[in-house]
Specification:
- By secondary structure, this protein is α/β, with parallel strands linked by helices.
- The protein folds into 3 domains: about 210 residues, Cation efflux protein transmembrane domain (Alpha-lytic protease prodomain-like); about 80 residues, Cation efflux protein, cytoplasmic domain (Alpha-Beta Plaits, 2-Layer Sandwich), CATH 3.30.70.1350; about 110 residues, Nucleotidyltransferase, domain 5, CATH 3.30.420.
- It is about 55% helix and about 15% strand.
- The strands form 2 sheets. It has a 5-stranded mixed beta sheet with strand order 6-5-4-7-8, with helices on both faces.
- Strand 2, helix 8 and strand 3 form a beta-alpha-beta unit.
């Protein structure tokens, strides 16, 4: 059985729109920086600034790719793509990571060329001012892109911000090289550039690896898996949880689990149980779009039952009472491996109340951790309360002892008590 979590498309669409908006502004900033670097590079002859201009074109291509990926991710699912286009964003993130790698190779190549073939520079002050001025601009753009990437769950936007962070290092290298060139040490710039290029390559490998994990549906967080399990296990009616799986697609996440419930749990009760689990997971992890709960009915080894009785010291061989809300006592029995292990008589303090005694009695049994109730008849309100708490209510045989009723239940000879149908 699969119970989908309520659609979160509104929130996700807002995240994608925000991500696309910040990427668009990043493109304008890159174009402005690229034009500036190219002009100053032609005037000064700075290979470092020329490399920055070429690098900015790579950034622009990557940004356009991310924008297209985010646009695709916002398209609605269809028959061909039932899970939507969310992985287009992850593919864009992978392409950005590849461009970061290419950028690192370009920086290394330019550095080697400068080491082998030194050149004289002109307009050093202008080149230095432009290089220094571009650093805070790139820093702010990098910080904001990574911030939006984290808040929207967009790896593509975050990776773009990471690439801008690498550009900061490259820009610092250019500034250092120009300063040393100004003081007569032109060979320092390419050495610093070579070291920065190595760091860029290392970062690109990490980005490629992380994007690849997402595309391969790998990289599940063990702590998150454990946390989801702890959300489901305390719910009454849950016997066990296993095979929890999560896979990320861009800014959203898909998940599933196998849920063990008592073998006599009805389809409706399973539905309510799955909805409750889905609600808890949705509240804890808003990025989860769909979480499927596969229900597996199993026969419980131990469980607790209740019978209405008249005697204050009833035993398993006592015959049950025919009333529910007005019964003075309940016989509570613990069953382990089809055998009665413990029993006790619990008084019903609501037996003599005139109003809502059935409701209060139902909550009394809920607090007693009862899982099965045997009665002759019951009002609709207490029956609904017990069923909503996944407590099974069975039609007892009032002429037989509690022990005989339990044996009949274990042989599947008793019927589930149903609410009376209303006549229209």
């Amino acid at each position: 059985m699969g119970i989908p979590i309520t659609s979160l498309h509104t929130v996700i669409d807002e995240h994608l729109v925000r991500a696309r908006r910040v990427i668009k502004w990043a493109a304008f900033v890159v174009i402005a920086l690229a034009i500036t670097w190219f002009v100053v590079a032609l005037l000064s002859g700075s290979v470092g600034l020329l490399a920055k201009g070429i690098d900015s074109l790579t950034d622009l291509i990557a940004i356009i790719t991310v924008f297209l990926g985010l646009w695709l991710a916002q398209r609605s699912p269809n028959q061909k793509y039932p899970y939507g286009y969310f992985k287009a964003e992850t593919m864009a993130a992978l392409i950005v990571a590849v461009f970061v790698f290419i950028t690192g190779l370009g920086v290394l190549w330019q550095a080697i060329q400068r080491i082998l073939f030194p050149t004289d520079l002109s307009f050093l002050i202008l080149a230095l001012v432009v290089s220094i001025a571009s650093i805070p601009i790139i820093f702010l753009m990098s910080w904001y892109l990574k911030k939006v990437g984290r808040e929207t769950g967009s790896n593509a936007v975050y990776n773009t911000g990471q690439e801008f962070q690498m550009d900061i290092l490259a820009s610092i290298a250019v500034v250092l090289g120009l300063i040393f060139a100004l003081f007569g040490f032109p060979w320092v710039e390419p050495i610093v550039g070579f070291i920065i290029g190595l760091f860029i390559l290392r970062s690109s490998f990490q980005l490629i690896f992380e994007s690849g994990l997402i595309l391969m549906d790998a990289g599940q967080d063990p702590e998150q898996i454990t946390a989801i399990k702890q959300l489901a296990l305390p719910i009454q009616g849950v016997l066990g949880v296993h095979a929890i799986k999560l896979r990320r697609a861009g800014p959203i996440c898909f998940g599933e689990m196998h849920l063990e419930v008592p073998g006599k749990t009805t389809v409706f009760q399973s539905h309510l149980l799955a909805e409750e689990i889905s609600r808890r997971i949705k509240n804890a992890y808003p990025d989860v779009l769909t979480f499927l709960v596969h229900v597996e009915p199993v026969l419980p080894v131990t469980f607790r039952v209740a019978f209405p009785v008249n005697q204050p010291k009833a035993t398993p061989d006592t015959k049950p009472n025919t009333h529910f809300g007005s019964t003075p006592y309940f016989l509570i029995l613990d069953i382990d491996k089809r055998k009665i292990t413990l029993w006790e008589t619990m008084p019903n303090p609501f037996a003599k109340e005139l109003k809502k005694r059935g409701k209060h009695t139902a909550h009394l049994l809920i607090d007693a951790k009862v899982e099965i109730v045997f009665v002759d008849k019951m009002g609709e309100t207490p029956l609904s309360i017990l069923q909503n708490h996944l407590i099974h209510v069975y039609q007892q045989n009032s002429q037989a002892s509690c022990r005989k009723n339990i044996e009949a239940y274990l042989e599947d000879e008793l019927a589930i008590l149903k609410a009376k149908e209303k006549v229209l």
